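Customer ticket, subject: "Can you confirm the structure for Gluconokinase?"

Message body: Hello, I'm evaluating your service for our small team and ran a test protein. I'd like someone to confirm that this is what the system normally returns, since I don't have a reference to compare against.
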Amino acid sequence: MGVSIIVMGVSGTGKSTVARALADRIGAVFIEGDDLHSQANLEKMESGIPLKDSDRYPWLQICNRAMREQNAQGKDAVLTCSSLKKAYRDALAEDCNAYFVYLKISKEESLKRVNQRVGHFMPTSMVESQFEVLEEPEPGEHTIIIESDRSLDQVVEDVSRRVRRNVLDSGER
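Agent reply: Thanks for trying us out. I re-ran your input and got the following:
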């Protein structure tokens, strides 16, 4: 049975870049959670309309199913998903050997990074709402917390080292 690692955090933390690099380093399947959104969800977010739980839960179920399918084949999976609320993390982890990597970032750095992105559906106006909704992981949630205000290389190295030590080599598979 494989392991699922969900790279989480608000917009601009580098979830996709870090998750891709992590998946490459540990030989896991990379799953971009944003690619699993419905067209209606994408249109809402592009328009600056925050998703409601009724929009989000069907998407979380799709993300969970994508990870479980890989795990059932004995493959490890790395998924990107903001996972801002504990209830969202619980839905993602249901029936799954799941661990979270929380990329923690300041609001100022998040705004700066989102402003610099080109071609992404998430507008800067949505950053504030993400910080308002964010419920940071608490002890016992199988979460590795990484400060992501550093260079991408530093973050990827830290994530890879800690995932190997705390998840893959710990015997908790």
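A couple of notes from the result: Strands lie at 4-8, 29-32, 77-80, 98-104, 143-147. The chain has a mean pLDDT of 88. Feel free to reply with more questions.
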